[in-house]
Amino acid sequence: MSNQFGNFVIGDTATANSLPILKGSIGPDAVDVRSLLDKQGLLTYDPGFRSTASCQSAITYIDGDKGTLLYRGYPIEQLAEHCSFDEVAHLLMHGELPSAEELAGFRKDIRDHNLLHDQVLSFYRGFRRDAHPMAVMVGVVGALSAFYQDAQDYSKDADQQKAAIRLVAKMPAIAAASFTYSIGRPIRHPDNSFDYSSNFLQMMFGKPSEPYIVDPVLTRAIELILILHADHEQNASTSTVRMAASSGANPFACLSAGIATLWGPAHGGANEAVLTMLEEIGSPENIPNIIKRAKDKNDPFRLMGFGHRVYKNYDPRAAIIRDITRKTLAHLGMENSPLMATALELERIALSDEYFINKKLYPNVDFYSGILLRAMGFPSRMFTAVFAVARTVGWVSHWLELKQEGHGIDRPRQLYTGPAQRQFERK
Ligand code: SDX
Questions:
Q1: Cβ 189 under 6 angstroms from ligand 1
Q2: Going by CA atoms, what residue is nearest to atom 47 of ligand 1?
Q3: Ligand 1 within 6 A of 182 CB?
Q4: What is the pLDDT of residue 13?
Q5: Nearest to residue 311, comparing CAs of 362, 384, 259?
Q6: Is residue 304 in contact with ligand 1, taking CB distance under 6 Å?
Q7: What Cα–Cα distance (Å) separates residue 199 from each residue in 169, 315, 383, 407?
Q8: Whose CA is nearest to atom 1 of ligand 1?
Q9: What residues of the chain score a pLDDT lower than 50?
């Protein structure tokens, strides 16, 4: 098959200029262009990486057209229905669902490493009380690089695994502390009589003056949020973690970079932006105007929580979150939530609008999650911090995969459009 490059042939035709096709286990094949510059003096050009596989990975697979999401081959709907978050974390990090014995060992590792070093807690006092939780998390997680001298040889599997567990174990406490500090409540420590999800909630909402009572409906809701946000192929923040890891940077610094990337409103920051948008809409009669703005090419406004680079169908996570949001709102006596009513009506109108249908824009994971988190008591500024707690599992899973495959440094090229070489002359 020849194309606009003339003798440039893509395919398995064995010629000097042909490029091999790489096949994954499922999903699109890939043209192996690694020899292109050496053999043909050509680069590929793909800003935004719309058609670029940056790596091989066995962790998560998304079929954007079908709207399917697999963690290590298991459909997200089945994992959401049958698993606890730590079972899913073990699956993503180690490739298989844990046996009862493996799960007990994994849970013990988490319990053994979920405390924050006392000096880490002092970092919080350096922030203003009104600092955004994501700013705090970028700083505190990066600062963890200055600790754990006992296991920093990341060429060793044992040190890799210890760093991964430390990050998964500590992230709930780091996130919760960024909230409690902001409201002047004493930072709470993990309580190992609780499971992972309940522990996160007690660190967020528990008070030193009274015992924390677990609400199983809220625990299940946050557990689903954590499971659904745990990993998602080579999204922007995961690609950032991999890029940083490819230079040999330590995992704490890599995840700090991932947290910074997730913060963006086009990525993980969208859940906070959805709530702001729904509150600005106010009531369903204002929806036509917001739809009009979203469709206006001259208006930079986009419908937050809608659209996705990969999903050209309904994000399977959004459907699950919509359902658990309805159940949790009813449990909390908020079934008539105006935010939920506006969101459901906005979805109904958008999904029947030619613009959204033609561009295959559907609700994504962020569309309903903010309504649920708000109802549970999380302030909007904490929504992306919750996302970061969940995605820590995906980030460390990709970090481990990259370390184990001995990946070299990522160093993209460019299509240069600046001035050709010229001689210096003083003006
Ligand atoms: C996450 O990558 C991941 O997997 C991310 C994530 C994960 O789990 O890690 O799934 C989490 O980040 C979810 C996405 C959250 N972001 C938002 O909800 C913000 C709103 N969405 C858009 O910003 C946008 O849809 C993106 C960023 C999500 C995707 O953008 P793309 O792939 O670059 O899409 P595009 O800009 O090429 O859009 C195609 C067309 C454009 O119109 P044309 O130029 O073709 O005329 O669709 C339009 C866009 O203008 N469009 C929208 C829109 N999203 C795309 N128009 C109105 N509202 C929107 N939300």
A1: no
A2: 359
A3: no
A4: 53
A5: 362
A6: yes
A7: 11, 28, 17, 35
A8: 267
A9: 1-9, 11-12
